Every structure is written in structure tokens, then in C-alpha cells.
Amino acid sequence: MSTMSARPASRRRQQPARLDWSLTPRGAVSGTVQGALALSAVAIGADIADLDPLIGVSATMAAATISVLTSFHAQRPPAALLYRMGCWLGAGGWLTWTMAGAGLREAVLTLLAGAGLAGGLAPLARSRKRAAAPGQELVLARTAQSAEQWQRRIQAVCRVPVTVTNVIAWPTGAGYDVHVDLPPTGATVDTIAGQSKALAAAARLPHGCGVEVLDGAHRGSVVLRVSTVNRLQERLPYPADLGTGASIYDPIGLGEFRDSSLAGICLREAATLAIGKRGSGKTNLLDVLTAGIGRCRDALVWHIDLNGGGLSQLWLTPWLEGRAPRPAVDWAAKDPEEALAMAEAAVSIVKDRKNSGAARKRAANTKLLPLDETLPELFIVVDEAAEIMKDGTATDVIRDLKAALEELQRIGRNEGGNVVVSSLRGAGGMIPVNVRKLSDVRIGMFVQDKSELDFLFEYDPGIDPADLTGPGSGFLRTDEESPRPFKAWELKPTDIEVQAVRIGQARPDLDERAQQIAGDAYANRYARMRRAFGSGSAANLPAPAPQRPLARPTPAPAASAPGTNPFEAWGGFQSPAPAAPANPFEAWGGLQIPAAPAAALDQTAPAEPARPLPEIVTRTLAAFAAARDDRMHSEPLAEALGFATPADLAEALRPYGITPMDQPFQRGGKARRGYALADVETAAERIGRGELPDAPETSA
Ligand SMILES: Nc1ncnc2c1ncn2[C@@H]1O[C@H](COP(=O)(O)OP(=O)(O)OP(=O)(O)O)[C@@H](O)[C@H]1O
Q1: What residue stretch is flagged as signal peptide (predicted)?
Q2: N or C: which end of the chain has fewer CB within 10 A?
Q3: Last residue in a domain, options 125, 156, 171
Q4: Can you tell me the ipTM of this complex?
Q5: Is 280 annotated as a binding residue?
């Protein structure tokens, strides 16, 4: 297959010029002259030796045959093969004719005419396959045009003289990757990523298609993932063949990226934050996560949904109806007290594992606690976490719940205590900064206000809500990578049913030591879950709230004592759903516990509208994101924001409580004063909460 390379002239000019004294032809003219002279010399030699003309015929045939074979071996195009054969037949025919006694004048004239013809047709001989310069990839011929277009396009839009080294079509046919080398003049991946929208527009990509800019093989290269067909518009059913027995050490699938590759996340050590407006597919996403984690032999899912428990209902139904031996979700809470008991239990378990897990770590010679079916990771999946985590008025229980979840996220990474948080919004005091910062996996489904995505993804320049196509599509960021558009698999109620039965059969139990630590709150949870989520008579009973404290660490776990309530011991599909105890408070040892305070959450109140950030604050955050630094000297920040002097910048930021740091710090070998990203973020949070008075907008 023929190829071509796309190299800029400038690079070619950099090659040092050398004199070449070899007889190797350098072009069509020199090649033709050399060939004609060589042929004349052979003809004169044959005349002097008085050779038989048949020798000329034999030599011609042999040369033509060798030419055909070598052309096939070199995969030359048909035109090159014909040209070479024509040359050998013409030269051989002329030689045979002269050996047979042609006149000198005729022989010379014919030789000149033949040489002229061969020289004129010489471009046909050129194989389109050229050797690449060292270190350069080749571009397939059918994409060579695309490569050249992209090279020109990037140069025009980004004003960077890049080299396109390869264009590779996706197997799905939905787009292609453009591999780009950056010039050694200071351009970085951010230089290109900042123009991804402009590149998509310049390439006239259809709506919903775009350009994602990813790191290349080395720091001086980038890969542009260009989608030309909007795969995100398609519905992607949950893969039916995903069985149980997976591991939390493997990626958990959420759906697909534009190129149909798996959108997977590694959750063993990573907390997750997902935001999205109502109807964006958040609940479906949490279902996909519940299924993905639930499939693991070394992980357990606990749910908190204080908006009526809708997240857990379908997952519990097969168990409630006696079609699964255990609930797929090991513990589900729909009221604040239950949720607090759960979160405190998880914190206690994690704290205990910090000591009790030491022997395991030593045995495995690792600092990260090894988890397996006997010691599973705990995931608390929280739907609509802003109701718990937002600043402002809250009951004591909610405040304690928030503190416990934050603590779990903060201390639980190593010991396998993990949090997945979803929220309608991520900014404006809805989700604490620390929760966002500690969430290595961030997912932004469709939101009303782009600033929510900007806030979640720290002003990554590649974010364009136009890339999203509707429910189930969003941006996914893992680690420090740029967020990528993806489409979540769709889990329909019947799929959840299938998964819930499978998981209920196969999932691990909480380890006995942890069960002891979690105490009665854990041991009796199934009874409360039946009342809270069950149908029929059990569901009609009021769900008693656990009296605090329920989950107190028990110092020395003794023999296992799970299954203390009658519902846990039934253990088989054939058992009918047990009737509720006569006294609804029985499960709490006969204690008369008042029902959960209804006012703990105003579940119907809509989320507060976001207070928009002043433009100068938004742009300051964006400047930090572009600089990929958490501190910036005043001069470059002023320049990035278009202020004439650092003093002008200071004046513009002061009304928002953003001031330069007291101490100078080193950047680029210079110690100067400047600004801290944390200060700007704190100010943004406070503005969102309405704590800072509106100040007159000052722009450059
Ligand atoms: N991945 C997906 N593919 C296709 N459709 C989806 C997907 N995810 C969600 N939907 C559809 O979008 C609608 C809303 O989904 P979902 O209930 O998950 O959104 P939500 O953000 O949780 O909304 P709410 O907060 O109002 O419950 C549903 O009708 C669902 O079928």
C-alpha cells in the first residue's frame, strides 16, 4: 500500500547539505543519461566481441523477467512495473538490433529517441512508497489528504507548526485519530486542547461530534480523537453477558466512549463524584455503578437515597419478593438516621482495618490493604448528596452524616471504604471542595449551566456541552486525564432484576470482624430494609429510625453473630417473605423509638439556583487551569487576564476576597508574590453561597 509522509519544509531545511560523488542517479535526467551511456557501452563492447544477436535477445528476456519479479517483491504499483518492463524491452531490443548490424546513424538516433521517451516517462517509475525519516510514522495514502488537511488546519487554528505523523481510522468507522508532533518551541498539549472547539468547527464536524485532545506517546506529541458519527446519540443496552466474579482491582465499565472503546473506571482506590441535572441519566449511571461494583467478588454496595429510596428499590425487589437469597445491595438507607448509622459503621470498620489489616499487608508485602471475598471493599453510593453535603441549615443528624461521609472518603482509600457521590450540581456550596478534590473519578452528565461542568473539571478547556447528546451522555475524567465524552449503558428495570438476582446469589458477605464492629445497626438492617422498602403488609408498617448511637465500634470481635433477625436466616428462594413482627419496634429490642423527624430533609424543595460567578473569578480559575498550576505569579496572571499591571489585577480581585499570598514563591526560577488557586476556589465557593456581597464587576 502506498504511503506518504507529511513533513514541513522547515524540518527538511534543517538537514545539513553534503556533496554526493556517487554514481547513484539523482533524478530523471541523470538517470536517463547514465542509462543511455551504459547501453551504448554494452553495444560497442558486443560489436567488438562480435557476439551473436541471440545473446541480446536472451539478456533482454532475462532482464525483463527479473524486473517483473523485483517489482512484485517491492509491491510497486502497476505503472511502475510497466515502465520498468518497457525500459528493459526497449533497451534489449535496441541492443539486439545493433548487434544484428544496424547502421550507426539509425542506432544513435533511435537510442536518443528511446532515452528521451524513458526520461519523460520516468515519474511513472516512482514508487509512491517512500522511506520515512527516522522517528517518523507514515501516513496511509487514503488518509494522506486528511493528514495534510489536519496539519494545515491545526497550524491555522492553533498557530503552531505541527507535524501530522499518522491518521488512523477507528474500527467502528465513527471517526479517526490524528497523531500530531508538536514543534520544540514551547507548544504543549494544552495549546491544542484549548482550541478543540475551534478545530471541530474548522473541520465542519456534525453536531454532537468533536475533537478530543489526548496525550500522545511522549510529551511532545498529542492525539486528536475526531468523531465524525455521533455514537453518543445511540442507545447502548447494558451488556447482558456481564456475569459476576469480577474484581474491584479491574476497571468497572460504565458505557462507551465515542470510538466504542470501553468507558471504564478503576475504583479500588478512587472515590467518585457524578453531577447532572434531573433527567440527565444520573440514576441510571448509579445503577450501572451498582451493577459494576456488585459484580465484584471483593466488593459490597451500600445505598443512601434520602429522596424516597428510589435508587435502591429495584435492586431490593427480587430479595423482597423471595426470588433472591440476599439483597444485591447489602444495606440501603432512605432516612437520615439509617444513613448515619451506615456511614458511622463504615468509618468504624475502616478505622479498625487500619490496625487489623496490618498482618494482611505484611503477608502480601504491600502497603495497600489487599482485599478479596473475605475482606471486601465497601462502597457507599449516595444519590442526591447535595441534600446532605450542601452548606447551610441542616439537622444535627444530617450534619453528622455529612461529617461521616467526608471522613470515610478522607480516610478510607487504603482500607477499602469508598464513596460514590451524585448531585444535581457540583458548585455553589452544594458539594464541599474537599469531596470534589478527593474524587479522582469525576462524571459530568448534562447540566443546565456550563459553569457546573467547568467547576467539576476545573476549567478544562476541552469541555463543550455541545458534545453531549441527551440522557446518558456525559464527560468522564479519571485521574488527571482530560474529560472525555461517553455514553452510559442503559440499565432497564428488567436488566436490574436480572443483575440483582445474580448479585444477590454471588456477592460476598461483609467480613465477620466488620460485622461485629458495625454492631446491631448492621445485624438488624434487613428487618428495617424490609419495612422501608418492602411491599404488602411489611411496607405499610412505619419504618422505625435507629436510635443513635447504633454503630459503635465493638473493641474485640468475638464469634460471628450475623443473622440474628429471622429474615436473614431464611437463606433460600423457597421461603416466602416473612411477615412483619407484631411490634414494629421489636427489631430494636423493644425500644420505642420515635419516627425519623420528617423535617430532616425538605425532599420536595428544589435546589437553590446557582449564584453565577463574576466573570473575573471564572476567568481567573480558567487561567490557573490553563497554567496547570496551583500558584501563579501576579505578572503572568495579570497578563493572562488582560490587565495592564499586577496592581490593576489586585484591584479587580479584591472585592471578591482574593488577594496575593503573603509570601513570595518560586516559579520559573524567580521568587515573586502571586495568587493561590485555593484562595480563588474558596472565594468562588463563598460567592456561590452568597457569603460575599455582590461587588461591581471589574474587567480588563
Ligand atoms: N444511558 C442511557 N441511555 C438512554 N437513555 C437513558 C440513559 N440514561 C437515562 N436514560 C433515560 O433518561 C431518563 C432519565 O434517566 P434517569 O432517571 O436516570 O435520570 P436522572 O438524572 O436520575 O433524573 P431524576 O433526577 O429526575 O431521577 C429515563 O427515561 C431513562 O430511560
Answers
A1: none
A2: N
A3: 125
A4: 0.97
A5: yes
